[in-house]
Amino acid sequence: MNINFIHLNKNKHYFIVFTFIIMIFVLFLYFYKHLDNYENRLKNILLNHAIEIVDNTSANILDDMVEENLDFVKLNLINSEVRIKNEKSLSLLLNKDIEELYVLFPSKNHLFFLLDTAKVDRGEVGELFTPESMKPFTKITETGEKITYIQNGIENIGFTLIKPIIQNKKVIAFLVVDYSKESLSFLSKLLTMNVNSINIALFFILIIFLFIIYYLFYRNYIKYKIYYNPNTHTLNKVYLNENYEKIEFEKYYVALADLDFFKRINTLYGRKNGDILINSVIKTINVLLKKDDMFIEYSGESFLLFILKSKTSEKEFRELMDTICLHVERKSFRLPNRRVRLTISIGALLETDLEKSLQDVIHKADTALYETKHHGRNCVVFFDETQSLRLYRNKLKELIESDKLVFHYQPIVNIYDKSIHHYEALLRIEDGDNIIFPDKILPSLEDSHLYSYLSKRVIEFNVKKLRENKKMKISINLSSDDLLNETILLLLAENSDVSDRLHIEILENKSIDYSRVEISLQKLRMFGYKIAIDDFGTGYANMGHLLNLSIDFLKIDGSLIREIHHSKPAYSLVKSLALFCKKNNIKVIAEFVENEQIVEVLKELDIDYGQGWYFSKALPYDELDFSD
Fold it and tell me: Which residue from 561, 554, 556 is spatially nearest to 601, judged by alpha carbons?
């Protein structure tokens, strides 16, 4: 059985954290690998920052010097006065960081001096200039963009700015600015400081990264020590308690096993020897399980077995339970100076996917285990619903999972102007040519895992319709248990962008926990959902409960509305409800409105909306009219 770090597989947040850490580590390696590229980019940024003032100022000076209709190069070659004037203008750019500043012009693949601001060793006009490489000048001629680069082999010069002089959209000359070694030295110090800072930051990130990994593995190790029985290599009750909501019980067959008459063993041989026997039994059972099965020490001499359905058929599971009983019965367990024989009883549950919670699964396995006591112990009993209910549940499960859900939509109508306020989505399931209605579906799935799955499908189906049709408003029915289900609440939160067009109708039942439901309703109202109580007046709810719930609509059950025009008690009750709702800003919807007489009474009672065959029967989506 695969026990090592099993809780990592059961906690999704570990996966998220590890994914995040791996991403950081990959980014760290990528950044470190490309550190040289970063240094080069940083050098360019610093160089461009250093030349920014000269670059901007020279642009203005060159604009004044280069006139569109005059040949700049030729004019400076033949006119000494213009040349002297231009050299004085360029001299304004000189500062302590600039070693040399001059203008070159190209001719027949060579460069020649045109202007030079140097006082000593200046280049005379027309004098040949021989650069270390023609590549920068060639590139500037092609792109028309300036270049800044570091000089490595020239004395006293740190880096150089070459800027194109453009006339009539053609590069005709180059402004060359040579910066001193001292200015480069200062920039190099800044670069070194920056790179050192990056290296220090990377170092600390690596330290933090390693610390997080250490912390997670240490925490994992501590949990492993807590969850793990070192004598048997199996999980204990602590694991079950801390992961109760995370175990995907529907994927397993579940059995609850109990050693028969074990209290006598403890009395005869002492608790210490009893623990030795328990560990021996666990090891005996454990070798019969597969890698993906789970063995959990439930309480003392009781054990929970989770047998993965995907790796074990129902027949194999039944045979495994019999084999466990047989192995325990036949084995002679060793104690100091004696051997002891034991037997074990097992209660098992096959249809775990029909259950609502792990608690229900264990309860039914325990019920089956209790039955073994009436069968003489040392045997296996499988919990079973009545045959007809089990077959019907399985049939519904198959239909639901094969997506045989359909919806008909019945309008909720303003009884005064007959305008449609919204539609109620009424669930149906297709079974070949037959249609199964909600009153045949929901009671059969009550207290089963399929109920919440069905509710999720109802939400997802109708959210899709709302996204397809922006004109539509829909109400859906959810039970009070659905509103206490975090998965359902999360699904509604994720789709809150349609909350203004999706109303929630609460299906009442006798076990509704109003205080907990109210907390859920407050959350849904924050997301923008409108809330209605459905079928009010059937006997479960009362006015006191209404005062404690945040609702927008009250739907009065059809059993009252049908009688309202000829039954005084029904009329009085509906009148009281309507008055109460009016004072508390709750809109009333009357169900089962079947004729004009009922409508007139509803108007008399100042009731807002009606629903029933008088207005329209429930129709498939394709038959609805959205022309208005």
Answer: 561
